[in-house]
Amino acid sequence: MSRALRFVPAVAWAGVIFFLSAQPRLPEAPFAWPGLDKLAHAAAYALLCLLLLAADRPRTARRVWGFVALAIVYGATDELHQSVVPARSADGWDLLADAGGAALCGAIWLRGVVRPAVARATGGER
Hints:
The protein is mainly alpha-helical. It has helices at 3-6, 8-21, 36-56, 61-82, 92-122. It has 5 helices and no strands. Helix 2 packs antiparallel against helix 3, helix 2 packs parallel to helix 4 and helix 4 runs antiparallel to helix 5 (92-122). The longest helix has 31 residues, at 92-122. The chain is elongated, with a radius of gyration of 16 Å. The mean pLDDT is 90.
């Protein structure tokens, strides 16, 4: 599969995020509790980061954190986008949740993928 095609799921998920952000109102969760929306933001951006990482399969911390940063920048542009949608507004706490989800995904990728690969390549545990 070509390298560009591997990014299609990440781009499609970014499109879903954009579509949802363009809606003046989102459906209410049947079991809403305080902070549920922040958890949803973190999960959405963790998934975006995971799809980006899975497309490239980076083996260095620098590349992993680059994809984390890309997901966070997309979160920032999403908040800007929401600021021009009627009945929506930008929220720094949402961006913080987006960043937390992306960073958690990056940290897990480093621990689960990069670290074992380095250990195999060097013949020992790091």
